[in-house]
Amino acid sequence: IGREGALGELQSKTSLKGEYRTDVQITSILNPVTFESTVINSGAANLVYLEQEWKWEATGRLTLTNLWLLTYSKMQNNDLPYPDLSAMAIKGKANYRFSPVFSLEGRGHYQGPSVAAAYPNNGRFHPNYALFDAELRVTASKDVQFQAGIENLTDNRAEVVLDYPLPGRMVYLGMQVAL
Q1: What does the buried/exposed string (b/e) look like for 129-149 if buried means 16 or more CB atoms within 10 Å of the residue's CB?
Q2: CA of 11: how far to CAs of 4, 49, 55, 63, in Å?
Q3: What pLDDT is stored for residue 2 in this prediction?
């Protein structure tokens, strides 16, 4: 769906998806002597996703993009949510073009809490978290672009895998060349 008016152009897309998954293996234990793996929690799962995405070209210089993902899931053998899958995730970004050469982009990502796959019956959860990034782009020509950015601006040590936090703040430089 798209719409253009006095406030710029708005594009939107909505998706609804349902899944039934069989033989989902949540976690297993590795025997350090025999190196054999034993499944300790598996089963079937029902999942429903609702995704809403929109992009707004507010002006000739400012573009806003947003993605919402709402999820309902349930394992059939224990009524817990599907492991490592949060009920809500939100991603957004704003891009401002100062000129044809310079642009600045800010990104945000919120992930809701989820049950940890490694401990599905022990009540361990991944806490919710938010991450923020910024990137400056310099367009040297139609085929060459340079980037300088910072990921995880707030140095959030969020856990995607339980007890293993994400890296902290990261600074990077990049170059894209179209061949």
Answers
A1: bebebebebebeeeeebeeeb
A2: 9, 20, 5, 11
A3: 52
**Is the model more confident about 150 or about 20?**
150
Which residue, among 119, 133, 131, 132, has the nearest Cα to 162 in the 3D structure?
119
Cβ count within 10 A of residue 65:
17
pLDDT confidence tier of residue 61, bands split at 50, 70 and 90: confident
